[in-house]
Write a structure and sequence with these properties.
Elements: H1 5-14, H2 16-27, E1 36-38, E2 42-44, H3 46-52, H4 58-67
Length: about 90
């Protein structure tokens, strides 16, 4: 059976990492999530990585939160970057 958006959202709210992440917004510790640029990996979200204790799952978690309507997405910046020599 396919999950509805509401069911997916409820399941996300039960995840400990999501609770900690959203708790930081509610407490004011995080007021806006801003990415940082790392020339080796691209944009990163250190606040999310600290909660997850890894870098690889941060974007996946944010995408899941966006897909069920918990977060909204905004364009932050565009950088033209050469993949061969890393010049900007």
């Amino acid at each position: 059976m396919l999950k509805t958006g509401k069911q997916e959202r409820l399941e996300l709210y039960k995840e400990r990492n999501v609770q900690v992440f959203l708790g930081k917004f509610l407490s004011g510790e995080i007021s806006e999530l801003k990415p940082t640029f790392d020339p080796k990996v691209g944009y990163r979200y250190p606040e999310v990585e600290a909660i997850l204790e890894e870098t690889s799952s941060a974007e996946e978690l944010l995408e899941r939160l966006y897909s069920v309507g918990i977060l909204e997405r905004r364009l932050y910046d565009k950088i033209i970057h050469c993949p061969s020599c890393s010049s900007q």
